[in-house]
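Sequence in, structure out.
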Amino acid sequence: MKSTYFLTHDVGTTGNKTCLYRVADKIILIDSELVEYPLYMLPNGGVEQNADEWWNAVCNATKAVLKRSGKACRNIAAMAFCAQMQGSVFINREGTALRNPMSYLDQRATKQIEKHLYKGIFKIEKWNAYKTIKSLIITGGLAATPKDPLWKYHWVKENEPEIFQKAYKWLDVKDYLIFRCTGKLGMTVDSAHVTFLYDTRKNRPGWHKGLCDMFGVNMEHLPPVFQSTDIIGTLTKKASRELTLPEGIPVLGGGGDVPLTLVGSGCTDLYDTTIYVGTSGWVSSNVDKRMVDIGNFVASILGAIPQHYVYVAEQETAGACLKWVRDHLALDEIGVYLKARHIADKSKEYESLYDYLNRVVTQTPPGAGNVIFTPWLHGNRSPREDQFARGMFFNLSLTTGKRQMIRSVLEGVAFHLRWMLEALERKIPHRDTIRFAGGGAKSDVWCQILADITGRKVEAIENEINAGTVGATIACAVGLGAIKNFADAKRLVGIRKSFGPHVQYADMYNRNFRVFTRLYERNKQLFKELNF
């Protein structure tokens, strides 16, 4: 296979990582650069970011990679984005963001969902039965939480009418950045699907006028829809100058982080399953038909692979719990650790954090002294959607130490991932082997905990923290014909290390898992009383 270079960007919750890859017999990372940006947390449940800060991060990361990569930057065949999903970006006709984009974490649209979805004589769960059934038939899912883009659309419409009146198009994160690169409007099928205004039935793809009318959405706000492998446009002179890239480079559709991480993990066959732990977490699997499990808040969305859907369960805070541990539970010890090793370089701190936690958790017996942590620091999505749920340490005693608490956080995230995995497997075959991607997969001890708690073989992929950009690179390669198809890309993704479950801990972890799931059921009303 002839070597081809691709530049892909992972626009995440807290930063953009730009990666330059060479694709031949393997996918080889040439260089990468992470540039961070803030989340703006508002007192009314709002979580926003700044669109210019996204773009500046993409530009600065790209410049850094190109400066170090030398001649390779002259041979870039295409560019694409992998991005956080379910954002809401309102732009005017010039492409300027009219307000700070609302993040997938934004949960302020509670009145809007109550107004448009909760009212009615006949209900399924708490949702209007007619609207729910119609949405399920047409899209295979439902905008069922205040965090869904549909209700953010209405929040702006009802709370900021002067901004809403100026809106030309309503975009997701990646689609805004593609427009900034090319001046062309386009949204990939995955982002279109999660508006739950897009018809996903076979031979009927497209924005659905009946749903838009039912939910009060102006169809003129909706952009054209493309596949991940389509060329949306080419790099404009202005964008090429800001990125220091040659003008005219094709920009492909790319996709959201959930579908592209599945592809970038090498999970391209039917029922291949990936667990991802980054800031958030999810369990996803390739399926060949639409699926939905309302009771467990699991649904399928269109993804990058033709004729496949991504059946996914999401966790709001996964790796974010580890950051919480760092900042609020172990900062003093980590500071001493970093100082003792003379680590002042911020770029080294993340790896050093894992080195430290690996050591701490490895020295702590499995089960964490029967201390159980619930990782719902910003509510929960699946398998129990609840914006009021929160984290807690359960079963502390006078003999509980900080190291047991730290281990219980890693175990708590793994318990929740098992909870979601078992929810998926009510509709798909049991998988004995699971791929593991994201920052969590860098930690051998977390990989082993996940294997022990799920009872599965866990394969940590190579280049685990870049699975999304690997997926975007594969989409580019398939789109340009450098790779024949997605199935052919499977062999390009390697395994860093495999972890089998330790059977001697199975009974203990099964017992603790049963307690973990009951902790939510027994405390959900108390969560609501405290956080409503």
